[in-house]
Structures are given as structure tokens and as C-alpha cells.
Amino acid sequence: MKRLVLIDGHAILHRAYHAFPSTLKTRRGELVNAVYGFSRMLLTVLEDLKPAFLAVAFDLPQPTFRHQEYVGYQIQRPEMDQELTTQIERVYQILKALNIPIFTAPGFEADDIIGTLARQATMGPVAGSSHPTASSDIRRRPGARRDSLRQCHPLKIETTVSSRSPSTTRKSCRFPNSPRVNFQTS
């Protein structure tokens, strides 16, 4: 069975940044702790899940439609550390070198993109395949409600990827039992 893996790059990168020490630097002093952690997770996903198809979605710095609809959306979330922001381009370079597609969309978060791609995959040329997603942020994944999707969660960013069935994901995230996806459009 062909496997599609959709990765929330922003969530994994953020987790890697906080998981690895800020002493991980290049010889020139460039901080690369998030790049290293992201790369380790990516290699683990490639080795453990052996996907036929792989894509990574990222958030963009601009506000999303949720910010426009609800003024208080993520108001408590602190600004992204500058040290993390400078590592995003390095991760893009790695993904491009590995020929892994990067998806972004102005006004939408990586979660929205992954939900859309997962929905399209269930109806497209890889329909009937296993479609896991890899992310450390499993609370809002719209695709997790689809019965043909599995939620993958890196337990330790550098070594392990666990897989959750749709029913397990629904229970742990307190989703209703109905397998439906609600998509937002602009």
C-alpha cells in the first residue's frame, strides 16, 4: 500500500527548537538546533514510515482568516523567537535539496493545508492508501477525523514516531465520533 505522509513543518520545527540545546551551532556560530531536530525527525519518518509521497506544510508569518474572524485568536501566544525564525530558511533548503514539496498558503495555517491535502488525497490518485500525518500538534488536525487517516505523533523528536488510529485520535482529542471534516474557505 502506498503511503502519504503530511508533516506540519511549523509544529515540528518549533518543538525541535525547544527540544535541542542552543549550543548546537555551525562553525560560524549559526544556531541550528531546530534544523538538526527537524532533520532527525524527518529522517525517522522516512525510515520508519517509508512514504511513497511526502509533503511538508508551514505557517506563514501573516495573520490567518482566524485572526480576522476572532481578534483574540492566539493573543496569548508569544512572538516566535528570532533564533528560531532564522532557522526556517535552512529547513526549506534541506527540504528543497531532498525534493520534498513545501506547501504554504497566505491566510491559512499548516493545519488547514494538511487538512485540505488529506481530503484531496482521499479522493485523488492515492485514494485507498494509508495517509498518516506527522506532527507534535495533534489537537486541531482536521484530517484526523477521516477514517482513512492515521495520526502520527513524534514521541521523542529524534527517535520515535507513534501512530494513532482515527478512533484513538478522536478519543484523545475529544472529537465527536462522526468522521467528518469541516473546511474553512476564504
Short summary:
By secondary structure, the chain is of the alpha/beta class.
Classified in CATH, the superfamily is 5'-nuclease
Q: Strand share of the residues?
A: 15-25%
Termini gap: 35 Å
Q: Write down the Rg.
A: 16 Å
Q: What sequence of helices (H) and strands (E) makes up the elements?
A: EHHEHHEHEEEH
User: Assembly type of the shown chains?
Assistant: single chain
| Number of alpha- plus pi-helical segments | 6
CATH-scheme architecture: 3-Layer(aba) Sandwich
Query: How many structural domains does the protein architecture include?
Result: 1
Characterize the main sheet.
Answer: 6 strands, mixed
Class based on secondary structure composition and strand pairing: alpha/beta
Named CATH topology: Rossmann fold
CATH top-level class: Alpha Beta
Q: Which runs of at least 5 residues are low in confidence (pLDDT < 50)?
A: 138-146, 157-162, 172-186
Percent helix among the residues?
25-40%
Number of strands: 6
Q: Shape from CA axes?
A: flat
Strand arrangement within the widest β-sheet reads 3-2-1-4-5-6
